[in-house]
Design brief:
Growth Hormone, Chain: A, 20 helices, 72% helix, transport, transmembrane helix, transmembrane, MFS general substrate transporter
Length: 495
């Protein structure tokens, strides 16, 4: 409950940019601000309560929808080893083609879809496309020829294109910079863990083989599609708008206008970009001149290439490389993703607490490098399976880390929209790479794919080193008053 305006000594008013689970700046610096005449003053406990109220509504609902997105695009290998490869005669590169075409429309339509998220509103737009791709996923269960999957995957990519960049953009507008990684990890982690355990669900659905005249792999597509339709309806009911717009709407049971005002004030104190900016295409497109955006995109590409390779080929690797049976291969996909979820949360907590991103990315790249070497150049199945644990933890934990790294080092609503689309677009290109460099003819060792992923890990370390050198030099110049960063004299780059 907000208290009326009082003396700063009586109430701890903390509206720096570091609220959240750690509240580092508030506890260490005890920074206070005078409240505006009409602004309520919130105690430390009340501020924490507001932030977690947003977490429960925004991160949970957005994460549930993304959970279905990841399961829908990654249930292809589970269906494949459940009999789809035989029934649809997926010989040669047919499986790779089906995996690949999704990313054609997924990459192309991300920039306009991100703009539509802002124009139409996230609740309407993001929920609508979720409902649409759920219906498409149901259609997968009724194909009779392998090539019929190609247009369906193209349409699936079209509808899914808007969700991830739109959700990333939406989350970035509600939280300050050092709240980001934990929230991105929570959002992405819901999808990651569910995606890993989708193999167990797929194994159960496979047992319905013959029921209703449908093969087991068709049941996988049908049930996953219906779950996505339900998630879309959930979004219509509970997904929230941008905070600068939500201030003028009634969210009964969520946050009131005074609480949203608090959110906007703390974001403005953190990076001065909470207010809605008038639409300016030239300003949006000019964001592409910032070299940092493309470096962050390259880093995202490096992690997502490995993540998509695992998503599309892990059951196949477990069966064809490590020699497990069909059921074992589906069930054994879950533990590496469970480990990845734990590591992701740990990295997110540490990154937000220490206000660091680059060192964590380097650590995860080294972890991935070790995992790849174990998978390729060792013999015991247990050791190679352990390598999969390290690889899954590395690439999947790195994704929210790069998302926070980028979000911490840019300012402005339209630049944020451009950067979100670019980042996720680079991830889509990573999906293309991940679905092509692991080829069926390279079984059992997948030397080409593993070598490509090793190159990605090395590139991650080099780009972080470059960023650290440049960001450190520019921060020092800004401290001396010789340079203004991102149009704000108080802004400093996060290393």
């Amino acid at each position: 409950m907000a208290a009326p305006k009082q003396d700063a000594a009586q109430l701890e008013r903390v509206e720096s940019g570091a609220l959240g689970d750690s509240f580092n700046d508030s506890k260490e610096n005890h920074e206070h601000r005078e409240a505006l005449d009409d602004d309520p003053v919130y105690t430390y406990a009340e501020q924490r309560k507001i932030i977690h109220k947003i977490d429960r509504r925004l991160i949970t609902v957005a994460g549930i929808i993304y959970m279905n997105s990841l399961m829908d695009r990654s249930n292809l290998p589970n269906a494949n080893i459940a009999g789809m490869d035989v029934d649809l005669n997926l010989i040669g590169m047919r499986y790779n083609i089906i995996s690949l075409v999704f990313f054609v429309t997924y990459v192309i339509f991300q920039p306009p879809a991100t703009l539509l998220t802002r124009k139409i509103g996230p609740r309407t737009f993001l929920s609508s496309i979720c409902l649409a791709w759920g219906i498409v996923m149901v259609g997968f269960s009724f194909v009779n020829e392998w090539w019929e999957l190609v247009p369906l995957r193209l349409v699936l990519g079209l509808f899914e294109a808007g969700y991830f960049p739109g959700a990333v953009y939406l989350i970035s507008t509600w939280y300050s910079r050092y709240d980001m990684q934990k929230r991105y990890a929570g959002f992405y982690g819901l999808g990651l863990v569910a995606s890993g355990f989708s193999g167990i669900l797929a194994f159960g659905l496979q047992q319905l083989d013959g029921r209703g005249g449908l093969e087991g792999w068709r049941w996988i597509f049908l049930v996953f599609g219906l779950l996505t339709v339900a998630a879309g309806l959930l979004g219509f009911a509970f997904l929230v708008d941008f905070p600068d717009r939500a201030q003028h709407k009634k969210y009964r049971g969520f946050v009131n206008s005074e609480e949203i005002g608090f959110i906007l004030r703390r974001i403005n104190k953190d990076r001065s970009d909470a207010s809605e900016e008038p639409w300016n295409f030239r300003k949006w497109a000019a964001s592409g001149k910032d070299w940092k955006i493309w470096i962050f995109g390259l880093q995202f590409f490096c992690f997502t290439t490995q993540a998509y390779a695992l998503a599309y080929f892990l059951p196949i690797i477990l069966r064809g490389t490590l020699g497990f049976g069909v059921g074992e291969s589906q069930l054994l996909t879950a533990p590496p993703y469970a480990f990845a979820g734990i590591l992701m949360i740990a990295c997110a907590w540490l990154g937000d607490k220490m206000h660091k991103r680059g060192p964590l990315i380097v650590f995860l790249a080294v972890l991935g490098l070790i995992g790849l070497c174990l998978l390729r150049w060792t013999t015991p199945p247990g050791v190679r399976y352990f390598g999969i644990f390290l690889l899954a933890g590395s690439c999947n934990s790195g994704i929210p880390c790069v998302m926070a790294y980028q979000a911490n080092n840019i300012r402005g609503q339209w630049k944020r929209a451009f950067a979100s689309a670019t980042l996720v677009g680079a991830g889509g290109i990573g999906g293309i790479a991940g679905s092509t460099v692991f080829r069926s003819q390279d079984l059992p060792h997948f030397t080409l794919g593993i070598s490509f992923c090793i190159g990605c890990c090395i590139l991650l370390m080099l780009t972080v080193l470059m960023n650290t050198i440049i960001f450190t030099a520019r921060n020092k110049k800004a401290d001396k008053g010789e340079l203004v960063l991102e149009g704000d004299p108080h802004f400093r780059y996060t290393l």
